[in-house]
Fold this sequence. Notes:
Layout: E1 3-4, H1 6-13, H2 15-54, H3 68-71, E2 75-82, E3 88-95, E4 102-114, E5 119-128, E6 145-154, H4 177-183, E7 189-196, H5 219-250, E8 254-255
Parallel strand pairs: 5-7
Antiparallel strand pairs: 1-8, 2-4, 2-6, 3-4, 4-5, 6-7
Helix pairs in contact: 1-5, 2-5
Amino acid sequence: MIRTTPRAAAWRDLVAPGLATLIALAILVSLGIWQIERKVWKEDLIDRIVRQTRAEPVAPPAPEAWDPGRDEFRHVRVAGRFANDRETLVHGLAAGETPGRALQGYYVITPLLRAEGGTVLINRGFVPTELKAQADRRDGLIEGPTTVTGILRASEPRGMFVPEADPVRGEWFNRDVAGIAAARGIADAAPYLIEADAGPGRATWPQGGQLKVDIPNNHLQYAFTWFALAACLIGVFGVFAYRRLHDSHTAPTGKE
């Protein structure tokens, strides 16, 4: 005959919940540590982007040498002539004069025929909806040789909730470099585009300098969330174990 006390049975009953709690705790702590690591990575990324966008402009990489991970957000300078007859309008928003209010309109993507050969798409900037027609903003067109400085950007992927482009109707909702180049018959387009800087003292449209380095960095908040859940899990299991052992301590001894 084996004598089993309620307290021994209570400890035995805690084994399975305890193992499950340890596994969940390890997962939560790992997620918290991962978010801390992501925070460090994101801060390095933001620092690199800010430094590159503020650096003196350099020549963009050759198309075959383009590496988005290395080259995106570089401050570059190119020379050539705008092919204004092949501009493309991409639906977009821009910050308005009133804080919190955005302007609806378009980003003007114009091919630049480079002096040394090849073509690169230039996002010349934003125009409000009422200036969609090129004829209404003739004073903003640049004819003849020109030099453009701006930020190197990769092609903008289409998000889940972004409508699909309709090249036949000229409806574009993301800055798709390959798609726009193909629709405009540009065979030698570089695989990137350049977000033009704002022209000093210019009051004409389009307005450049729309790129804002505003990369979310909420990883510390996420880390606190995972660590808080881990602490709550420890607290819940601690209360559960205490009650189970306390109840077994006051229960009469049984026999099997």
